[in-house]
Amino acid sequence: MKEESYDVVVVGGGPAGSVTARTAAERGLDVLLIERNLEIGVPVKCGEGVSREIEQFVDIDSRWICAEPEGFVTYGPGGTRVALLTEGSEAAGYVLERKLFDKFLAQQAAHAGAEVRVKTQAYNLIHENGYAKGVYANSAGEDIRISANVVVGADGVESRVGRWGGIDTTLPLADVATCAQFLMCNVEVNNYFENIFDPEIAPKGYAWIFPKGGDCANVGLGLGGDVSRVNHCARDYLRAFVNDKFPDGQILTEMYGAVPLSGPVYETVANGLILVGDAARHVNPITGGGIIQAMQGGAIAGDVIAKAVREKNVSKRRLMEYERRWKREFGRVLEVGMKIKNIVLNLSDEDSIKFFRPLAGDIRLTEFSERALVKEMIKKNPRILISLVRMIF
Ligand SMILES: Cc1cc2nc3c(=O)[nH]c(=O)nc-3n(C[C@H](O)[C@H](O)[C@H](O)COP(=O)(O)OP(=O)(O)OC[C@H]3O[C@@H](n4cnc5c(N)ncnc54)[C@H](O)[C@@H]3O)c2cc1C
């Protein structure tokens, strides 16, 4: 078997893997990034919506931006419309072209000095003395033994790297959203991120319409994994939804995927191993969004790995710095998100209506942060403060 050796091998060429690889390479490490697919960023399994928080992690490039929605419009049960809009005509976020965005991030990793290799699938870990010491991979039909001081599991929702390294990444059905999405044209699109909460349309989940430019939109929905069944799966619900909402719409692409809504795995590091992005379940349990945490976690992971490799100490204890830092940066968002998700999913229809109704109308935000949003919600309905406190604690 062919043998190769690197400081770090990153498994998975999504946003988490590319940002980890870029950061570690920028700090002087010898990095290999492997992706099982033939092309980085394809197939796309994403609604492609991000808030402007992304600007903290990458300079926006119009080549991979399809639309700049002006706000988030949510339709609650009973049709209540809650609109979070920017002041003026500023964008509230972006709809990406992930085929190009993911390639851009991988290109940045390559420019920083990482080696990027597609059509290369990891199929097991190399274990030595209780440490992960690399991976076995198949690259275009050839088996390779890739040694590395640190293995990064950036292998997405289906992650196997964690399991190979002894980390429990099991996802109970109720904690997975099964999703379907159509890229459609001939649809009447509003320049908003639109979300629809209605148990008839998407039980234990929600539907979304994100503008993709012109008369195109990503129209999708996710259902609780425990309610999806034959003839009642996400695809069936989505067909019914688009037939009703966009009778003249045409489907250009169909996509199916899963989103982990479990909150983070209990431990995201082991000896010589780190999990990032969806593999670490770093997804907001309310929105299902994971792109920003994937990049944020990747940047922390790359930094910690570089220090640990230089210090010649890649023990779990040393790598725990990664866990402490991601918890500080976005752990609270995931934790509170889990609590709210569990409560919202168990609200009766009547209670959901009671929650949404006082928020009906337009809320103008000068800044699109969670803090600004909660402040405005409380201003609009002070009783929400009591409900939120009750929900969270
Ligand atoms: C339907 C749907 C809609 C979504 N909408 C949004 C949204 O609007 N906004 C948002 O922020 N998030 C959204 N998400 C979530 C978002 O797509 C993920 O959180 C994000 O892609 C996570 O990035 P990642 O790098 O961790 O994983 P991924 O992007 O999944 O990348 C993992 C990569 O690892 C590769 N891989 C897996 N196993 C191996 C292996 N053994 N060897 C080599 N390579 C391997 C895969 O091929 C893949 O390319 C959505 C997800 C779904 C399914």
Overall description:
The protein is of the alpha/beta class. The chain folds into three domains: 2-44 and 98-171 and 262-340, FAD/NAD(P)-binding domain, CATH 3.50.50.60; 173-261, D-Amino Acid Oxidase, subunit A, domain 2 (D-Amino Acid Oxidase, Chain A, domain 2, 2-Layer Sandwich), CATH 3.30.9.10; 343-392, no CATH class. The chain contains nine helices and 19 strands. The protein has helices at 15-26, 98-111, 161-164, 234-245, 291-310, 316-345, 349-356, 370-380, 383-392; strands spanning 2-11, 31-34, 49-51, 65-67, 71-75, 81-86, 93-96, 115-117, 120-128, 131-139, 142-153, 176-185, 193-196, 206-213, 216-224, 250-260, 269-270, 273-275, 361-365. The strands form three sheets. Strands 1, 2, 8, 9, 10, 11, 17 and 18 form an eight-stranded mixed β-sheet that branches. Strands 16-12-15-14-13-5-6-19 form an eight-stranded mixed β-sheet, sandwiched between helices. A hairpin with a 5-residue loop joins strand 5 and strand 6 (81-86). The longest helix has 30 residues, at 316-345. The site of flavin-adenine dinucleotide (FAD) has 37 residues, from helix 1, strand 3, strand 9, strand 12 and strand 16.
